[in-house]
Amino acid sequence: MSKLWVGVVSLLLAACSATRAPAPAVPSGREVGRDISREVLAANDGWAAAGPGTRGGADAAPAQVFEVRDRNELAKAFAAGDLPKIVRVRGRIDLNVDDANKPLGFNDYRDPAFDFEAYLKTYDLATWGKKPLTGPLEEARQRSSKKQAERVLLRVPSNTTLVGLGADARIENGSLFLDKVSNVIIRNLHFADAYDYFPAWDPKDNANGEWNSEYDNITLRGATNVWVDHCSFTDGKRPDHTARIALGRPMQHHDGFLDITQQSNFVTVSYNHFQNHDKTNLVGSSDSQKLDEGKLKVTFHHNFWENTKERTPRVRYGEVHVYNNLYAGGSGGPHPYGYSIGVGFSSHVFSEQNVWETSSDVRGEQLTKLWKGTAFFDRGSLHNGRPVDLFAALKGANPSATLSPDVGWTPTLHGPVLNADQVANDVRRSAGAGRL
């Protein structure tokens, strides 16, 4: 081939290359070089933006940036104290392991004096009745429970950003405890199976007694300025509907997914996916917690509650903004729909532009539930594509209750509020881990 023809062919190939379609852009939020572990909460993004705002460990020095792959490394990073720190989770971390990363189980934590079958025989309602549990078997259960807690519950310190790397970072088989800490960010993590081997039997809980478990995936007690964002929560491979019946009641091995109690304040919960669970998000633990008055200021926005039975959220005392969330579920399956927003004692819930997609037999009156509350506000929400007046529905279900739409405050800390007809697509596209 002559040099002339070689030149012509080269020009033609260059022209074809120049006219090819450009490579697709990197999806928004996944830009090359973006470091989500240094990101902070936006100035108006919910209650966690109040006061000093929430920066987590964004100001961490290089020596306070940790990449962790197992429980030992995670615990060591948390032990670094309250200096600003970034903890990046790589892959799967199992909290229910020994120092050699060997999985642990019931027999590893069981006190020698604890015999579960003897426990059932001793505290049967027919013989023990409704009185509080006492005696050596209950004491042995408590020692067993304490031993498990010492292993599977990790305390998160102040000024921490805990973030998953990639789409598959996860923390399983344990609980993160934010106790009287401040300025914490948790993002882009899958949480699963905070399993309690030694749930407590309470014979006075409900008519026939109930089992109650100890661990939430994330627990806030007295924590302030906390942002939980783009995380996913499930019960993993041991859901409670597969547990045995004992003392006539289904055993419960999982508690809440994310509970916010005991004077916690200034919290934003955004773009999370809560799936296949019973009691999901509790704000305020007891009517008698008078110190919660004026605290528990929490924002829930753009979260996806899918097949969650109740407490999404249940609120006592708090000024809670619930907007642009998606609820999906129905009356069938292992987590039949109970209610979504619980209007509890002295609560001040401001709800707007939320969306429910339910089976046709779930009525508008079921979307909220009154738990001694006296005020509730909602506007713009949809149920199965149609406008729903949640206040009227709540009032109609409780005609003798004194109930007002004046909750005593109006949210000012929030981003743009979408119209409800835009919410489902936005939340399904964006909520959960691996979507940043």
Summarize the structure.
The protein has 436 residues and is of the alpha/beta class. The chain contains 8 helices and 32 strands.
Word description of this protein:
The chain has 436 residues and is α/β, with parallel strands linked by helices. It has one domain (41-430): Single-stranded right-handed beta-helix, Pectin lyase-like (Pectate Lyase C-like, 3 Solenoid), CATH 2.160.20.10. It is 17% helix and 29% strand. The chain has eight helices and 32 strands. It has a ten-stranded parallel β-sheet, covered by helices on one side. A hairpin with a 2-residue loop joins strand 15 and strand 16. The longest helix is centred in the N-terminal third of the chain and has 17 residues, at 136-152. The protein is globular and about 60 Å long. The model is unreliable at 1-29 (pLDDT under 50).
